[in-house]
Design a protein that fits this description.
By secondary structure, the chain is mainly alpha-helical. About 75% of the residues lie in helices and about 10% in strands.
Length: about 100
């Protein structure tokens, strides 16, 4: 009877060994998958940040070009120190009439 119980115990231990190893392997794979998902999330966050910065730069550049279209590239400094802008030099100088004229 003692030999029968010992034999059953040994057989049971031998059969359960690979099952425990498989659980351990599955656990490691789950950890690797979780780590990969975490890295992918970080990469996606970085990509979103870069896209946001690019959008902000494009918006700023567009606003500057729109301002130039409205005010023009010509500027004139008046005698009182103020600066007038216009589409042409003559238009900018005309803005200095009420400021004492154009500074020489």
């Amino acid at each position: 009877m003692r030999h029968l119980l010992a034999g059953c115990l040994i057989a049971l231990t031998a059969l359960s060994g690979p099952a425990l190893a498989a659980q351990s392997g599955a656990k490691d794979e789950a950890k690797k998958a979780g780590s990969a998902a975490k890295d992918a999330g970080k990469d996606a966050g970085d990509a979103a940040a870069h896209a946001g910065k690019a959008t902000a730069k494009a918006t700023t550049k567009g606003a500057k070009s729109a301002k130039k279209a409205v005010t023009g590239d010509a500027h004139a400094t008046c005698v009182d120190g103020s600066v007038q802008a216009g589409k042409t030099e003559e238009a900018a100088a005309a803005g200095c009439v009420s400021h004492g004229g154009v500074k020489p």
